[in-house]
Amino acid sequence: MEALATLFDSYPALATYYTTAARWIFVGLAVFILGKTALSLLARRNPSEIWAYLRLPDGSVRPLTHWENVIGRARSSDIVIDVMTVSRNHGTLSRDQYGNWRYNDLGSKGGSLINGRSVYQSTPVEMGDTITLGGADCILVPPSLKEKQENIKQRLRSTRGVLPWSPIIAITIFQIMTVMQLFASKGSKLPFTVLLSFLLLTIVMWAYCIFLRIMSNRAFEMEAIAFFLCTLSLAVVSTSEPESTFKQFIAIVIGIIIYTVMMFFIRNLERGVKIRNLLMIISVALLLFNVVFGEERNGATAWVSIGGYNMQPSELVKIAFIFIGSATLDELYEKRNLTVFMIFSIFCLGCLALMNDFGTALIFFVTFLIISFLRSGEFTKLILVLGVCAVGGLMAIRFVGHIANRFATWGHVWDYPDAGGFQQVRAMSAGASGGLAGVGAGNGWFKSIFASNADLVFCYIQEEWGLIIAILAVLAIIILGLYAVRSIKSGRSTFYTIAACSATSLLIFQSTLNVLGTVDVLPFTGVTLPFVSNGGTSMMSSWGLLAFLKAADTRQGASIAVKDDSEDNDELFIEDYIAMADEEASEQRLAQAQKTQRTRSPHGQSQPGPQTRSTRPAPKQRQPEQGRPRNPNLRQGDVEITDFSQLEDDDL
Amino acid sequence: MKKLERRAILCLALVLVLLGGIGYYVTRLVEYGGDWVSYPANKHIYNNGYIAKGVIYDRNGKLLVKNNSEGKKVYNDTEGIRRATVHVVGDKVGNIATGANIVFADKLVGYNFIDGTYTTNDKSRELYLTIDADVCRTANQALDGRDGTVGVYNYKTGEIICMVSSPNYDPNNPPEVSSDDDSGIYINKFISNRTVPGSTFKLITATAAIDTMDDYEDFTYTCKGFEQYGKAKVDRVKCAYPHGTVDIQKALEVSCNCAFGKLASEVGQKKMEEYTQRAGLLGRYSIDGIMTLPSSIEFTSGGVSLAWAGIGQYHDLVNPCSMMVYMGAIANHGEAPIPRILSKMKLPSGLPGSVGDTQMTDELINADTAKTLARYMRLNVENNYGSYNFPDLKLYAKSGTAELGDDKSPHAWFVGFIKNEDYPYAFVCLVENGGRGAEVAGNVANQVLQKIIGND
């Protein structure tokens, strides 16, 4: 490396030639990385899984494709029962990660019975039980063995053929070439910590991916996208504030840790739901601390200094905000849950208003609206809230000086190049100078402008890396969002779905404010670009929010959050089933398979612990988590394969 | 869950907003990227706010200005050229906003959408203008310190060969200009000014009359020196002397105000407005991106105001460049090329860069009308201005003496074109407060045109 620095030092022309070629190679690599990951994420359908069947009074059988299902007469219900005595939203039928089903009456007019007994609250339901909704008898039926095989096959198909390594290799090349470009630009003046940070980032990335692969994860496109953006972030910091590069790297590592820990919590729905109260307390404490001890910067007191480190607590609260806003289907029908969320939202917005942090407040507000809409679906109420807040916002703009200034120059910053439009004019001038491929990392001048590597980072990238990579960085976030939205179709719980969609909306809205604010399409609000901007807490919160998106990925072996432990134990086992399914397994073969299962089942049972679902041909004995009270109504062996066959014969 | 699926569309709406915003930004970048790059804070091309790259030459390779890496500017050695081209080239500190050194900063540094300002070497780009520095110098000498402007362009190719604005100064020795100065020293009057056109505007009225009056050839008018439009003394159009009975050609030749007042009245407000618009006077031309100032003409529904407006007085204000283009359209029988000032560009590698092609205006005048009008303009020269005053030039012209009132000396105008295979040039010549159009401005025009055809 030293030799490289000396070489570029002594032959400046060589550095120029390197940059000239490399800048287009960077574009090519970036297109490859994002193209490959986007294709892998979006080209395959997230498999729709069948968890059970419901036999309706008319004799038809409807699959339950989610963990949480609304049953009712309304066409928007997951299971539509077209009987007049059934309420529009009559009840919910939900299962937990162990396969225990519960029915909950939603205050229907006709009432609900389970096996003839009236139920008024969430009640366990067994396979074969009759649920009577307003007089209409429905029977819960487990999926057949063959269908389970088909499910597995489908899930596997969506991750099979995913080549997670090629984008990772491309990112590695990107990182190595970036370091060389930094040498070409700075020569031997390049600080050692920059070099170290890049080296460690590459190591961390590989270590993470190899670890996942060992854990039988087949797909890590989302992480690849995040690592790519982090590479850009590190490059931006290393050219603008070389001394902060290592700090930014540490932020990435902490971000990955937060991401992994969150995944651990989210994978178990119950645990995820429980942790919300703790998160709420922490958030309230953080925000109060911020309001009291906040330091003022540019009119906003969004920063606190803890042990010499500056942080933006509101960034971390974003994660909690999504957590608290998300709810399982039954919770959606609870008043208390909504009230808690409303109060927490108002508290957050109030604190942000006290801090004068207009940009973040706007992000929270829009996320609040999105979550409210996802939860209630009421547009009119939404518009009303929006209207009231718009008036309030206008008043705020009218009275708060620095916000008013930003709005005053909006749309014509070029008329105020040395006043209100100072930063954006320079951003656009520098950005346009970069052309499509940039002037090369380290060769720009925009770094000398305040907040260029954070609030104005889009144009920073545009100047040094070019318009294509700048747009790709934004597209990367959009790709993550599109994937999350698409995954709803196969979403298991509304908790995951609301979390993924609102985290996506938050990331996309924040990117919108950042990018369009920088280039004067929207007023400049001074927020960061997720994963890219310089700033530790922003980086950590980006990774944290990514966990919500990843949790919506239900493909086999695609995520830590949604995972099947049988795959850990015995991958071949699943393969066997696929092979059998392909041959249109006959009854005999199925019977054989059942035998195999029986012989293997002790092995499977030796792995207690949280299981999100079972891919065994025969469901195992339900294994509750240690300490968790066992469902008193759970009949031992009720899901033994023999029962299945019987059910199939009798009921299907 | 099914409900959520539908609600998630809201997230997609956010995606669309972001994509739409970026799309909008990119279109703006394509359109204005050059301007943004040229902002003096851009250290890729400026040094301490001064452009640090590029050389500008005239059409014959005479140096107009060279920007060195310290942001200093080196101008032509000859003071006369420096003065005559200061408005074309631009001054040292950027007071002249339409100067090529400012307007074409993006081209001088080699900006393009694909590569931005990225270059592999520090060699300069060379920009060649269509201007002939020597012709400009002659024009400035002919103006002889009087305020005004001279513009000459090739009505086949659109190349501006001469563009001089006065007052002007030596950029190497800029004068102290007080902040309330209204002489227009920093304004290129050819591009960014408009002035009372006087009788040159009769060409527009004539065009409208020829086109709209079926019997324009039979039109006769007996001028008794004035024409009354109302009872008051001010409701009167006057001529310098009674012209007697004139037809439309004769009226143009002797520049009879009374006859043209009558013609404007007969054509009427609507048609006068339509023909002024069609002649391109009310629009703006983009001279390789430098926008001209539109003319401003106001017609009333009738009476003496309409008559005066048709004579080029009242509130009429015409931009010299747009008048010159109209001359080009008459010479060309309908359309004229849009003026250009960029001739060619040499990249640091020595390869030529693209500067755009000649583009034509819409039809500014009907072809037959143009022929008729050209015939009249030739007769103006033969019978009134005197061909002997313009030796070796097959000149077609119209003079104008724009009265300003308040005992100010009138603006002298002379506009037209010459027919010559090798020198197809249309011109506009304005000497502010110069006196009689044909004599004063005609003389300036003659000197410039003689220089162009090589009669020094």
Question: Nutshell version of this structure?
Answer:
The complex is a heterodimer of chains A (652) and B (456). Chain A is an alpha+beta fold.
Largest sheet of chain B: 6 strands, mixed
Helix content of chain B: 25-40%
* Oligomer state of the chains in this structure: heterodimer
Tally of helical segments of chain B: 15
Per CATH, the architecture of the domain at 191-344 and 357-452 in chain B is 3-Layer(aba) Sandwich
Spatial separation of the terminal alpha carbons of chain A: 69 Å
Order of the strands making up the biggest sheet of chain A? 2-1-11-10-7-8
Radius of gyration computed on alpha carbons of chain A: 27 Å
Number of E-type strands of chain A? 14
Give average pLDDT of chain B, whole number. Answer: 89
* CATH class designation of the domain at 191-344 and 357-452 in chain B: Alpha Beta
Structure description:
The complex is a heterodimer of chains A (about 650) and B (about 450). With about 650 residues, chain A is an alpha+beta fold. Chain A is about 60% helix and about 10% strand. In chain A, helix 1 packs across helix 2, helix 4 runs parallel beside helix 6 and helix 7 runs parallel beside helix 19. Chain A starts with a helix and ends with a helix. Chain B has a domain of about 250 residues: Beta-lactamase (3-Layer(aba) Sandwich), CATH 3.40.710.10. The longest helix of chain B is centred in the first third of the chain and has 29 residues. Chain B starts with a helix and ends with a helix. At the A-B interface, helix 2, strand 3, helix 12, helix 15 and helix 17 of A face helix 1 and helix 2 of B.
